[in-house]
Model the fold of this input.
Amino acid sequence: MTPANDHPAIPSAAVVGIGADGWPGLPPASRAALAGAEVLIGGPRQLALLPDDACPGERVAWPSPLRPAVPGLLKRYAGRRVAVLASGDPMFYGIGRTLTETVSAHAYAFDVLPHPSSVSYACARLGWPLEETETVTLVGRPVDRLAAALHDGRRILVLSAGADTPARVAALLTDRGFGASRMTVLEQLGGEAETAYEAVARDWPHPPGDPLNVIAVACVRDADALRLGATPGLPDAAYENDGQLTKRHIRAATLAALAPAPGELLWDVGGGSGSIGVEWMRTHPSCRAYAVERSPERARRIERNAARLGVPALGVVTGAAPQALAELPPPDAVFIGGGLTAPGLLDACWDALAPGGRLVANTVTLESEALLTQWYRRHGGELVKLSVAHAVPVGGFTGWRQAMPVTQWSVTRTNGDRG
Done:
């Protein structure tokens, strides 16, 4: 985003943050940008906060859907003084991101004038350190995504989608074993009508209130709730499955080999119950994944597991690989958990990887192990056998029950690799 327009030939716009306190709460620079604008673009609620006498410019409400309309709308008013209104800080879950992602920096310049965000106001009211408080937005997103942030003792601020969001959050907390959590709803933060009310999630008594609200959650896990950690290797009981599940200890080793990093995309081929894709996405909110599963029943099960464990954005592709991979965006990493001997599968996954991409494949059969050995000899990497045994009763004593050993090949593609 350009701080100022250093190239007069490029059209520019001011992006002005505004709070619930409206015009009186704006600093001089923001007032000047709005007062001098010939065109004011924003949501109806934001535009209504501006006094007509101080801001005489033409008022244009964002159309719906907003994102695809942005480039054309700005192009229409190029050459005129334009100001775009945003709620709070434009670059914090605001219109600023949409502008930078949809309009080239070479086509438009933006001067951003932020206002305190609702999160800053909420932390100030609650006495919560901003840097230690997690923020989850539910604006235009399913409430299930909150589940990934739930950990005992954590503080979360939820950016609400509307008046009914607090009740939906309370229901989710109760369903996910956090019904003892205390919720505080803060409405119209920074405005004259600011108010707050609270209650325990499982006993949420409040009717829908103001749609402009932020929800503070002080997380308390119920004593009998399944504990879900922040690292890969969730309990097997966290997943609905029909036996097609990469078990906990093997799953943790597999995610370590895949080495997810923020923003990266995974193909989980032979998704089964979806556990690898789910835990890949749980490592960071910006991680993305597609699970490819030929069984429609299992594909639906993957969707349910993803929603319950807080990553409803996991993409599920129902179809047989490698054919089902053809339309997917290029991956940063690929996991093959089933179907290794399908003709062309390994080749398709390998060819999809750019240099630096990782491939990890697990198998328990001798036939697939022989195939992985061939690829290991050709491309290197690491070939390991993972073995897990569990203590079980043996009469009046205790002994070890060995699970089927898993052969795992992991490799990073380099510039010199060929198919």
About this structure: The first strand starts at residue 12 and ends at 18. The chain has a mean pLDDT of 94. DSSP finds eleven helices and 19 strands in the chain. The longest helix spans residues 366-379.
